[in-house]
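README: folding subset

This subset contains proteins for which both the sequence and a predicted structure token string are available. Records are stored as plain text. Below is the entry for Roadblock/LAMTOR2 domain-containing protein (165 residues), shown exactly as it appears on disk.
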Amino acid sequence: MKAQAPTGYGRGLSSQARNLHWLLSNLVDEVPGIRSVAVVSSDGLLLLNSDPDGADGQEALPGAGDGPRGSSADLATIVSGLGSLTQGAAKLMDGGAVKQTMITMDEGSVFVMSISDGSLLGVHATPDCDMNVIAYHMALFVGRAGHVLTPELRSELRKSMESAQ
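--- output ---
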């Protein structure tokens, strides 16, 4: 199932916040195999996702049942946990900063990429996705979004996510 591009955003948001929503929409729309996308702040809070209102009336994944299993809200939790785990591992191994984490499973893949401010971009993809294409487009997103993700913008995005729920 194709991820849902963000909808309902833009009203009352700054141009930088609208630009980030547009970048996320492009990532979702342009890259085949993406199921859901989440941007998580360094403290684990969801800033942007590919299904912000959860009102599409469809299951996020085949067999998801009544809950949003596999949705970008769940992805945000996973991304935050993976980010903490990999950063801790890198510190213990004197490995420097973590740039990207990838998990491949029988039924899909999860990619996590660091954004310059400590935030994380997470993508849940189909099992037949082209991992190189997804990683490339994630890197483009990070390159474009990293310099504008200021503390003020993160606060604005958090507030917009809270009001969308």
